[in-house]
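Could you show me just one protein sequence together with its fold in token form as a worked example?
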Amino acid sequence: MTEFLTQDSQFANYMVFPKFLLDRETLSETAKILYMLLLDRARLSQKNDGWTDEKGHVFIYFPITALAETIHKSEMTVKTALNALEKEQLISRKRQGIGLPNRIYVKYPADTGLTDRKLSTKEKEFCPPERQKNVCQTDTKLSGNKNESNKTKEISEKSKERTAYGAYHNVFLNMDELTELQSEIPNYQEYIEKLSSYMASTGRQYQNHAATIRSWTLRDRPSLSKRNYECKEDESL
């Protein structure tokens, strides 16, 4: 079943397709979709602490097996697409060790902004020079005002909406849960990855992933040594 698009239509989760990919004729459609997926994950990491290196570069973990399952392609096809993206300098991979997924850095052309709203050549053709300043800029401002008016509503919805984390994209936390874990557990990111790998390898499922992470941290805390209340004959408590 499908619905007609209206002004009040609410979209489910969607990904951003950068326009510059349309001009990359050397990239296959699979490589472009893969880049879109990696960029979506990187933008998520960009908003959260613990996903930048010492140089401030945002990175992600996304195993080839998980990528293949997500885009419904073979692992060989994913490897070929990753190599093509790396050749185009749109990603950079850094090995983390035996049995560990590579750290992936998502890159973009230096002359291409990912979020700017500059008029393209075609857009300017439909906006006469004498009206470009008044009409086109007004359109941009209206768009910005509309986004601003929906900001409070979006924040409220996002705080309850669960987002996938972890190398296997299977640890689900909402904004409030993630914020609480960040304040309570210094190495929360490590526990997210542990839970992600454990569920992927065993098929085990948990009802509440935030509660599971808290449970694991309590389990891993060293127990306090039992107090000794004994004393020698010449000593008193």
